[in-house]
Every structure is written in structure tokens, then in C-alpha cells.
Design brief:
Layout lengths: L2 H8 L3 E7 L4 E9 L5 E2 L2 E4 L4 H21 L5 E8 L8 H13 L4 E2 L8 H7 L20 H20 L8 E5 L3 H12 L3 E5 L3 H10 L2 E3 L12 E4 L8 H6 L4 E2 L10 H9 L3 E2 L2 H4 L2 H11 L3 H25 L3 H20 L5
Parallel strand pairs: 3-5, 3-6, 4-5, 7-8, 7-10, 8-9, 10-11, 11-12
Antiparallel strand pairs: 1-2, 2-5
The structure holds 1,4-dihydronicotinamide adenine dinucleotide.
Length: 355
């Protein structure tokens, strides 16, 4: 498929290719839908194998941001940037200055910050060239790391899922498997332990797993073993696409909910989970805490407002589960309907002519 066909498939508005010879910057900004407002989305840095994978990732990630923003009531469109490069070896000051300068050229149509592979420090550099950067480190006057809020939102979302399925949001005594012990996964483990859960976890980076094991009563298993464990909840907090035909057959849990974006390899997998009566919590709702935090920065950051809105993700999920039951569809489809409905209604308001 050509690039325009790819864009037409989900209705993407714009792809912006950024290139700077001197710094070696190769980046793409994807803007999916700006109906609700200026576009807000993080910037991922990854050493993709091919150009096709760069474009595929930016298209999928930006689509997810439209949904996340719309369903959580944020007045932002959906977009994302990716930088094609190895985050361990290719980062330079010039690279992030060049990136920042391109972001500035978009004059606020696109506002960005950290994602996988990028840090607050990288964006302190980009912010020297652009005012359209959010989520800078708190020591530099920014609002700090979004993963704290994201992890709290995931925890609230799991309570809501438990309440829906088991009639109580109390997770005490439940066994939860956490995949990925990075910024979000490790903090989620803390919440789960505090709530009285038994936690079994894994990370491809063994040092990270062992570090967590030294601080918390968790059982560490290998990255492949993780799909075969008998548990109540499986929480994917690493890469997207982990729910596929193979892994879904193996999972022995009743709820799936975690921080990773685009957890379903494709929609058929969501239907397989529905048939197996595993409650899959839509990823773009349960992991929306980070977006809520950066969107609040745009308004003038109020930590208490962020906390309340993040806790509200539980109620939002409750609505989504009820709609799914009413329509007899999987919750991910009900979530998509909530997204479409908000965008359609707000777009219609925008058509009223003002003198
Ligand atoms: P991170 O990069 O800090 O952590 C990811 C962890 O997953 C790393 O420790 C990595 O070694 C591990 N990992 C990678 N592949 C794995 C595998 N197959 N099995 C086990 N572990 C594996 O990233 P972060 O910030 O914790 O984000 C995690 C996920 O949540 C990502 O998909 C991200 O896009 C998503 N997310 C993060 C938000 C945030 O505020 N940080 C907001 C919304 C979504």
C-alpha cells in the first residue's frame, strides 16, 4: 500500500517528514485528526528496521492519541512523532535542537513531549527551539514525568474492571502479572503490592527486574513464561501488539489491562478475547493518565485536578463496560463508539457560523 492509501485507511490528516543532514535527524510527525483542537502527542525514538515500520508506528500511535483525547474529554487532536534512531547511541544536542525547530515551525498545531526512548532531558534541549514542548522535568520548572500519573490511572482502571467483573474493586488477594518494569510498570507494581496483590513480573532487561525484586515482594519470571501463568489480571506495560493469536490462546487470566499502547495486534484478537470471556480494558482509556497530565499543563497545571481526572478514568471505564454490555460488543468497540460520538458532536458545533 502507498502512503496515501495508508493515510486514507484511518483518515489521517497529515504526515510531516523531518530531515536534517547535519544532525542526522530523520523523524515523522503524524497528525491523525485535529477536530477537537491543537494536536498533542509524545515523541518516540526507536531504531526501526525499515522506513515502512516508522510510518506504520506513527500512523498507529497518532490514531490512538485521537481516541485517547476524545474519550477523556480533552480538547486536543491526536498526533505523535517518531524519531528514527537508536536512543542509546544516536542522541545529540543538535538532533533534538533540529527536532525542536521543526516542531516550532508547526506554530502550535503540534505540541509534543516524551514517549518511549525519549526523556525530559531530551526535551529540555528541544525546548530551546520550541515553545510547543510539554512535560519537562520538574527541576527545570516543568510538570515532571507522566509515568507516575499513568501508573495511577492504570491502577484505578484495574479497580474499575474488577468492580465490573467481580462486583468489588478491591484487589486485595488478587494475582497480577505485570509485563515490563519500566517507568510505568514499576510504579504500577508499587500500587498493586500496597493494595495486597500477589505480583508476578518480567522484563527483558534482567537488571531492571532484579532491581525491583530487591525492593518489593514480587516473583520474577522470564519474558516468555509470562503468558502461561495462572492469574486474575494480566497487565501489559511494555511494547504494543503483545496480544496476538498465539498469546491470547495461552493467557489464563480474567482481566487484561495495562499501560502499553496498541496492545491488540489487530481487532480480531479483541474479538477472540471477548469470546474467551476475558475482559480486555481498552488501552487508550486505562493509560490516559499521562495525556491528562500534559493536557492540564496546557491549561495551567493543577495537580489536584489531574489526580481527580485520573481517578475519573475508573468511572469512564465503568460507562464503557456498561455500554459494551448493552450493545453486546467488546469494550474496545464500545470505547471506539464513545470516541466517534464525541468527535462527531463537537465537529457539528464547530460548523455553527459565528458573526
Ligand atoms: P519504559 O521504556 O520506561 O519501560 C518499558 C519496559 O518494558 C522496559 O523496562 C523494557 O525493558 C521492557 N520491555 C520491553 N519489551 C518487553 C517484553 N517483551 N517483555 C517484558 N518487558 C519488556 O516505558 P514506559 O514509559 O514505562 O511505558 C510503558 C508502555 O506504556 C509503553 O508502551 C508506552 O508507550 C506506554 N505508555 C506510557 C506512558 C507514560 O506516561 N510513560 C503513557 C501512556 C502509555
Amino acid at each position: 500500500m502507498g502512503i496515501f492509501d495508508e493515510m486514507a485507511r484511518e483518515g489521517h490528516e497529515q504526515l510531516v517528514f523531518l530531515h536534517d543532514s547535519e544532525s542526522g535527524l530523520r523523524s515523522v510527525v503524524g497528525i491523525h485528526d485535529s477536530t477537537l483542537g491543537p494536536v498533542l502527542g509524545g515523541c518516540r525514538m526507536h531504531n526501526y528496521d525499515t522506513e515502512e515500520k516508522v510510518i506504520d508506528d506513527v500512523l498507529r500511535l497518532s490514531l490512538g492519541m485521537t481516541a485517547k483525547s476524545a474519550v477523556t474529554g480533552c480538547n486536543h487532536g491526536g498526533g505523535k512523532a517518531v524519531i528514527w534512531g537508536d536512543p542509546d547511541t544516536d542522541k545529540t544536542e543538535a538532533l533534538f535542537r533540529a527536532f525542536g525547530r521543526f516542531v516550532q515551525s508547526m506554530r502550535g498545531r503540534f505540541c509534543t513531549g516524551t514517549d518511549m526512548g525519549t526523556t525530559g532531558e531530551d526535551f529540555l534541549i528541544a525546548a530551546q527551539e520550541s515553545e510547543w514542548v510539554v512535560g519537562l522535568p520538574d527541576y527545570a520548572g516543568g510538570i515532571g514525568d507522566t509515568s507516575v500519573t499513568t501508573a495511577y490511572g492504570v491502577f484505578c482502571g484495574l479497580q474499575a474492571a474488577a468492580d465490573h467483573l467481580w462486583g468489588s474493586g478491591d484487589l486485595n488477594g488478587r494475582t497480577v502479572v505485570v509485563q515490563g518494569l519500566g517507568k510505568v510498570g514499576a510504579r504500577l507494581v508499587e500500587h498493586l503490592i500496597e493494595a495486597g496483590c500477589t505480583v508476578i513480573a518480567s522484563d527483558v532487561d534482567e537488571r531492571r527486574a532484579r532491581r525491583l525484586e530487591a525492593s518489593f515482594p514480587v516473583k520474577i519470571v522470564g519474558p516468555e513464561e509470562i503468558y502461561d501463568i495462572d492469574c486474575d489480571i494480566f497487565a501489559p506495560c511494555a511494547m504494543g501488539g503483545v496480544l496476538n493469536e498465539d498469546t491470547v490462546e495461552r493467557l489464563k487470566c480474567q482481566i487484561i489491562g495495562g499501560a502499553a499502547n496498541n496492545q491488540l495486534a489487530h481487532e480480531d484478537v479483541g474479538h477472540m478475547l471477548f469470546e474467551r470471556q476475558i475482559l480486555y480494558v481498552p488501552d487508550y482509556i486505562i493509560n490516559a493518565g499521562g495525556l491528562i497530565q500534559v493536557a492540564d499543563e496546557v491549561l495551567g497545571y493543577e495537580p489536584e485536578r489531574v489526580r481527580l481526572k485520573t481517578e475519573g478514568l475508573g468511572q469512564l471505564l465503568g460507562r464503557c463496560f456498561s455500554l459494551a454490555d448493552e450493545l453486546d460488543v467488546p469494550p474496545f468497540e464500545a470505547a471506539d463508539r464513545l470516541v466517534e460520538e464525541r468527535i462527531r458532536k463537537i465537529a457539528k458545533v464547530g460548523r455553527i457560523f459565528l458573526v
